[in-house]
Amino acid sequence: MKLDRICIIGGGSAGWMTASMLSRHFEGTGIEITVVEADDIPRIGIGESTTQFFNTFIRYLGLKDEDWMPKCNATYKHSVKFTNFNQNGSFHYPFGPRGTDIPLTEYHNWRRGRNIDSMTFCRVFSDVIDPIEGNRLYPPFLDRYVGYHVDALLFGDFLRDHYAIPKGVTHIKGKVTDIQSCVDGISRVYLCGGDRYVDGDFFIDCTGFRGLLMNHLNVKWVDWSDLLKNNSTWAVRKPYTNKKEQLQPYTECTGLSSGWVWNVPTWDRIGTGYNYCSQYITDEDALVEFKEHLGVDIPDDKFRLLKWPTGIRQKVWSHNVVSIGLSAGFIEPLESGGLYSVHEFLFKLIQVLPKSTTKWNAFQRAQFNHSVTSKFTSFRDFVVKHYTMGHRDDTPYWKDYTNMDSLIDLEDEEWLGEFPDLLTQEWENIQKINFMSEGEAYLLGGYEYDIMPEHYEMLSKENNYDIPDFEEPILRRTFMDQTLGRYPNAYEHYENHLYNGKGN
C-alpha cells in the first residue's frame, strides 16, 4: 500500500512527538505529514517523568538540552526512588552503567554473609546515588544515561512550534466529525465547519483514550485490570517552599494505603498525584489521604480526578491505521510508561517503514504488531513486580497484590494475534526484550531478594570458582562520600546553564 500522505489525528505530546519523528525520518522524501488537532479536546498532561530511553528520542531529533529544556520547564532525572513499597525502607532504581563491575549473582552471594540493606545495594551498584541523595547532578551521565522531568503540555507545544511545523508538517485545527472507510481501512476524515476534510494513505491515531480511529475499525481493547489494579488518580501541582532543597534529580514514588504517590520536580513546580485503585478506597477518602501525605494547604479546585483503563489494543496497527500513545495502550504512571510507549512504538514504526520507499505491506505490519505488543507486555510484567514482590500486607490493597497469582505467560496470550509462519526465529531473537534485566536487578536488590540459585555454591566448587573479596567497592563509596562537593547542586546548575538566573 502507498505511503504518500500521513495524517495524524490528535495533537498533544503523543501527536507532536509522532509528527516530529516522522518528519525527521521522512525528511527529503516528499511524503506529506498532516496533524489534525481539535481545540476543545482536553489534554491530560500527566506524563511528566520519562525513562532514560527518552534521551534517545531527543538525540534522534538532533535536539540539545539547552534547545528544549528551558522551554518545557524540564529537569534531569537520574533515578526512581521507591519508598514504602516494601517493609525494608527505600531504594533506588538508578539510570546508567553500574558503578562497580561486581556481577549481580556474585553480589548476592557476597551479601549472604553480610547485613546489607536496600539502599546500600544501590550505592554499591551505581555512582549516581550518593550525589542525587544530596540533590546533586552527576555530569558524566547527562549526555546519555539520564531521563527528564518535563511539562508534557509544554513539550508538545515546543515540538509543534519549534520542530514539526518548521520541518514542513501541516497543522490543521478541527474536530473530526466523521470517518470515511475504504478497503484498506480509512481514506478520509471530515472536520466540523462545513465541507472540510483531510485525505490520507496512512493514519495515526493519537486521540488518547478515545481511540477515535481504532474504535472506528472495531479494534478490540485488551483489558489488563486483573494485573494492574490502579484505575484512578488525584493529580495536582504544588509550589516549591524551598526550591534548592526540593529540586531533586530523581522521581520519588511513595506507597500509601491503596496505591502510591509520585513526586516529579520540574523547574517551576512539583507535579504530584495519588495513583490508586477505587476498589479499595473511595475517591473522597483517597483525596483526604493524599492531602495528609502532601502536608501543604492546596485549594480543592486545584486537584484533578482522572479515571483510566489499563491494557493494549489487540492490534496496535490495523489496516492503514497505527495507534500511538494512550489510544494504543496504557499501563499506569509507575516507571513512566506513558511517554515511553510513544517513542518506543515510533522507533519500531520507522524500522519497518524505511524512508527509501513510499510503500508498506502486511508483513511489515505484522512485524510491528508482534514487536510492540511483546515489548509492552514485558513492561507490564515489570511494573506488576513492583507490587507483587514487596510483600507488603498491611492493607487489603497490598495484601491482595502480594498474593496475586503468577503472571500470564506471553506465549499463552492468544490476543497477540497471528504472526506469519514465514517469520523466522532470527527475527524473534532480534526482537527479544533485554532492557528489563537491569531494572529487575535493582528491583530484586531493593526488595532484598536472594536471587541466587540454590545450586550456585555447588557449581562454584565444581568449577573451582573463588568468590572475590568485595570490600573495595564499599571503600570506594567512602571516597565518594568525601568528594561529593565536586558535583554541582541541581538548582545551581539549572540556574547557571539552562534558566539564566530565573530561579524563583
Summing up helix and strand content along with how strands pair, one would put the structural category as alpha+beta
Distance between the termini: 54 Å
Q: What is the number of independent domains?
A: 2
Low-confidence segments: 406-412, 415-436, 451-468
Q: What is the CATH domain class of the largest domain? A: Alpha Beta
What's the CATH topology name of the largest domain?
A: FAD/NAD(P)-binding domain
Strand arrangement within the widest β-sheet reads 5-4-14-15-16-13-17
Q: Using only CA atoms, what is the Rg?
A: 24 Å
Work out the helicity level.
Answer: 25-40%
Care to count the β-strands?
Answer: 21
CATH superfamily of the largest domain: FAD/NAD(P)-binding domain
Largest sheet: 7 strands, mixed
Put simply, the count of helices is: 18
The share of residues in extended strands comes to: 15-25%
Question: Architecture of the largest domain, according to CATH?
Answer: 3-Layer(bba) Sandwich
The overall average pLDDT, rounded, is 84
Overall 3D form = globular
